[in-house]
Structures are given as C-alpha cells and as structure tokens.
C-alpha cells in the first residue's frame, strides 16, 4: 500500500508540474502578446499626434493662402499688376517712360553695369 500511494503521489506531482508549466506558458504567451499590443498602441498614438500636428500646420497654411488669395484677387491688386506688367494708366494720367542716356549699345544688364561703373568712377575721381 505504501508503494502504491507513493507512486500516485509522484504521478499527481508530475501532472501538477506539467499543468503548472502549461499554465505558466499560457500566461507568458498572453503577457507577451499584451506587451506587443501596448507597443503598437503607443506607436499608433505617436503617429496620430504627428498627423494631428501636420493637420494643424496645414490648416494654418490654408488660412494664410486664403488671405493671400483674397488680397491678390482684390481690385487694387489687379490694378497694380495691370500698371506694372501691362503699362495700364487711368484716364487723365500721364505715362512717363524713363530710358537710359541714349547710348544703349548692348543688353539692359550691360547698360546698367556701364552706368554703374560711370557712377562709381565719378564718385571716386570727380569729387
């Protein structure tokens, strides 16, 4: 009888150890799964904050562009561009065309450089 009880004790101990290892492995598996889900959640939260910041920045840029559009589409801006680019004048105004000293031989840049050199020469040597 003593041997039989001893044998069942070992069997139950082995079964309980196997059960314990099995349960422990399940707990470890679910813990690791939970940690991985928390990491993913944290990464998603960070990405969400970044995207929300981008949205705020884009909203600010949109407001600035809308202000610029309303400014540029105003009558005053249209008139200014017509004056600058097309030479438009109002009725009763006179247009003046300012040109060089009549000695334009090359391109505008060359004429400006020559005029600029003459001005510097006069500044240093004819004062």
List the helices and strands and how they pair.
Layout: H1 2-72, H2 75-86, H3 108-125
* Continuous helix count: 3
Sheet/helix structural class: mainly alpha
Average of the residue pLDDT scores: 81
What fraction, in percent, of the residue positions are helical?
over 70%
Largest pleated sheet: none
Radius of gyration: 43 Å
Label the overall shape: rod-shaped
Question: Which regions contain 5 or more consecutive residues with pLDDT less than 50?
Answer: none
Order of helices and strands: HHH
- The proportion of strand residues reads under 5%
The end-to-end distance, rounded to whole angstroms, is 133 Å
Number of strands: 0
Structure overview:
The chain has a domain at 1-74. It is mainly α. The chain is built from three helices and no strands. The protein starts with a helix and ends with a helix. The model has no long low-confidence stretch (mean pLDDT 81). The chain has helices at 2-72, 75-86, 108-125. The longest helix is centred in the N-terminal third of the chain and has 71 residues, at 2-72. The chain is rod-shaped and about 125 Å long.
């Amino acid at each position: 009888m003593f041997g039989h009880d001893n044998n069942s004790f070992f069997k139950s101990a082995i079964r309980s150890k196997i059960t314990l290892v099995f349960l422990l492995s399940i707990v470890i598996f679910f813990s690791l799964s939970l940690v991985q889900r928390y990491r993913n959640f944290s990464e998603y939260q960070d990405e969400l904050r970044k995207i929300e910041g981008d949205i705020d920045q884009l909203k600010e840029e949109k407001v600035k562009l809308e202000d610029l559009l309303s400014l540029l589409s105003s009558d005053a801006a249209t008139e200014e561009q017509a004056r600058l680019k097309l030479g438009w004048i109002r009725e009763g105004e006179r247009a003046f065309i300012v040109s060089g000293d009549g000695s334009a031989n090359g391109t505008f840049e060359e004429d400006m450089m020559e005029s600029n050199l003459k001005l510097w020469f006069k500044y240093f040597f004819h004062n």
